[in-house]
Amino acid sequence: MIEPAKLFQLEGGQKRRKLALTFGALERDIRGIAEKGTEYSFTSMTRTQYIVQITKVLLKDEKLDDATRKELEKLIAQDNLDELRICNIARNALLAIIGTFPAEWDLVIAPHTPAIDENGIVRKRDFFPDVCVYAEDIRSPFNIGSIFRTAEAMGADKVFISPRCIEPTQPRAIRSAMGCIETMGWNRCDLSQLPKDLPVFALETGGTDINDFVFPKKGICIIGSEELGVSPEALKCADYGRVTIPMKGLKASLNVGVAFGILMQKWVESLQK
């Protein structure tokens, strides 16, 4: 975080970007989910005083819309300041001025239950044994984080990722996954290293309608990259077959994370029958 006096010395775009980052860091600090090294640490003023000071810096921005200006002026004049609301309104107003809008991984979401307890032990999770996913060449940190988050929520056992898949420990992937990467078991491996005792099927076009597909009790579902889908090599490994999500739209296209969510819901439904 930066001293308010220094913010006054910055110019237009640079000042706005720094302010947006600062308000975002404050939101995470207020929620108790600040990244290490970004916690509020100024001793010369309280966090509340700091928020008021940098909000006043923003109020001097001629590009701030009148409605937001009035709202922020009202909020910082209250006796019991709603720090989180002030920071959230200010950050999103700045992003709108800059011309940038937050992707999901940039949103400051409420705290989740930590994957590791106070004794440093990973919390026990409930899951379906040997219900796994193989993420092949996923490039987006948001998508791989989303896949981990869905896998954990729906009770998958493990996530396998291909050698060319983006690193799940990439910061944006971690934030998108909301703590699920630490909770889920995962391995990086190529197709030849997948467990030999589990049936393998692929989520790809040209297969059996997901409403008619007979899901295995245990197995590995292959999901392909955002641009190329499941590779020919991976399709050859899909000894249990191919499952397809029917679509009616003109584009007939789903984000890989969304498609995986639909598949997991159907798979879990079949396991609970």
Architecture overview:
This protein has 273 residues and is of the alpha/beta class. It folds into two domains: 4-102, no CATH class; 131-271, Alpha/beta knot, CATH 3.40.1280. Helix content is 41%, strand content 12%. It is built from ten helices and six strands, in the order H-H-H-H-H-E-H-E-H-H-E-E-E-H-E-H. The chain has a six-stranded parallel sheet. Strand 1, helix 6 (141-154) and strand 2 form a beta-alpha-beta unit. Helix 3 runs parallel beside helix 5 and helix 4 runs antiparallel to helix 5 (83-98). The longest helix is centred in the N-terminal third of the chain and has 20 residues, at 12-31. The protein is elongated. It starts with a helix and ends with a helix. The model has no long low-confidence stretch (mean pLDDT 88).
Stated plainly, the CATH topology of the largest domain is called: Alpha/beta knot
| Proportion of residues in helical segments | 40-55%
Radius of gyration: 23 Å
- Output the helix-strand order: HHHHHEHEHHEEEHEH
| Tally of alpha and pi helices | 10
The separation of the N and C termini measures 53 Å
Chain-wise SSE layout:
Blueprint: H1 4-9, H2 12-31, H3 47-59, H4 66-76, H5 83-98, E1 131-135, H6 141-154, E2 158-161, H7 171-177, H8 180-183, E3 185-188, E4 200-209, E5 219-223, H9 232-237, E6 241-244, H10 256-271
Parallel strand pairs: 1-2, 1-5, 2-3, 4-5, 4-6
Helix pairs in contact: 2-5, 3-4, 3-5, 4-5, 6-7, 6-10
